[in-house]
Every structure is written in structure tokens, then in C-alpha cells.
């Protein structure tokens, strides 16, 4: 079963930095990890104007760009809900799907904030833990530099879903 955990928090709280430190350690433990990044500001481009993939997409086609080392799927969004993305593309292919954002999706979450009073903005789902350099009460809490502690916490969560994890 694929476990989904959202990393939510205020802008510039360190979510991306934290994820880039956590992911390699989770992969070292044998987990297949995917990340869904929410871009709440409308359209975005992953290819450049004038490139073949851009021309093909602009002509009306959805496009897959493939190479021996990576693949991208450029598709018109039918739905940008996390449930739709997870069910259609991720569930079953990964052990763990982490999201950056999707704070209103109501999923289990690790809240990353600069100040404890910001936690209340992210209660649309079950808070599993809080990452903040200030003291936090009422939740399992980690400092931002406690990457190993956060990884152990996530491994426990994934392990409780029945997958055998290397520890």
C-alpha cells in the first residue's frame, strides 16, 4: 500500500530544503518515493517555447518526453485534486508519496513552520508532526536540522502500514 504524507507550511519555511534532505535517506532505506509539488499560482511550464515538446503541446496534444534516464508527461489538467493525481498516477507504484503543498487537501501532514503560532493555519488534516526550530507543544516535534529524526519518524509511519523497511 502506498502511504501519502503531505509537507505543508508557510512560504519560506524550508519545506523544499527539508524534502531534498529527507528523500535520499528514505531511498537509501529502500523506499520508492515520489513527490507531488502543488503549484497554486496557475499555469507553469516545464519545457521552453520553441522546443518540439512545446510545439506539440501547443498544437493540442498531450506530450510524453522520454529519454533513457527520465520521463515527463505534459498533460492538460482534467483535475488537480491530490486524490485524482494519487489514484491515477502514483498509488501502487511507490511505497511513499510525499507532497509539498496541498494544505487544503485534508491529508495526513507534517507541518513545517518558522513560528509555532503558524501551525493553526494547517489543521485541515491530521497533523502527524511539526518541524520548527522553536519549541512546539502538543505534537511530535522536530528541529529543522533533525533530518535523521524525521526520517526515523516517517519510516515508523510507513512501517506501520505493513511494509518491511530496512532500518
TrEMBL record:
Instruction: Note the superkingdom of the native organism.
Output: Archaea
Name all Molybdopterin-guanine dinucleotide biosynthesis protein B (MobB) domain ranges.
5-133
Query: What SUPFAM superfamilies is this protein classified in?
Result: P-loop containing nucleoside triphosphate hydrolases
Alphabetical list of Pfam families matching this protein: MobB (PF03205)
Name the PANTHER family for this protein: MOLYBDOPTERIN-GUANINE DINUCLEOTIDE BIOSYNTHESIS ADAPTER PROTEIN, MOLYBDOPTERIN-GUANINE DINUCLEOTIDE BIOSYNTHESIS ADAPTER PROTEIN-RELATED
Q: What is this protein called?
A: Molybdopterin-guanine dinucleotide biosynthesis protein B
Species for this entry: Geoglobus acetivorans
Amino acid at each position: 500500500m502506498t502511504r501519502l504524507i503531505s509537507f505543508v507550511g508557510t512560504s519560506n519555511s524550508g519545506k523544499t530544503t527539508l524534502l531534498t534532505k529527507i528523500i535520499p535517506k528514505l531511498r537509501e532505506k529502500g523506499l520508492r518515493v515520489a513527490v507531488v509539488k502543488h503549484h497554486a499560482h496557475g499555469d507553469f511550464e516545464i519545457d521552453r517555447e520553441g522546443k518540439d515538446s512545446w510545439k506539440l503541446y501547443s498544437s493540442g496534444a498531450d506530450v510524453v518526453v522520454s529519454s533513457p534516464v527520465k520521463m515527463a508527461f505534459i498533460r492538460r489538467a482534467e483535475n488537480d485534486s491530490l486524490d485524482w493525481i494519487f489514484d491515477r498516477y502514483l498509488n501502487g507504484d511507490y511505497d511513499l508519496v510525499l507532497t509539498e503543498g496541498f494544505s487544503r487537501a485534508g491529508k495526513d501532514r507534517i507541518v513545517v513552520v518558522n513560528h509555532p503560532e503558524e501551525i493553526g493555519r494547517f489543521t485541515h488534516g491530521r497533523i502527524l508532526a511539526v518541524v520548527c526550530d522553536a519549541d512546539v507543544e502538543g505534537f511530535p516535534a522536530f528541529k529543522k536540522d533533525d533530518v535523521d529524526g524525521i526520517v526515523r519518524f516517517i519510516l515508523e509511519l510507513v512501517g506501520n502500514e505493513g511494509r518491511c523497511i530496512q532500518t
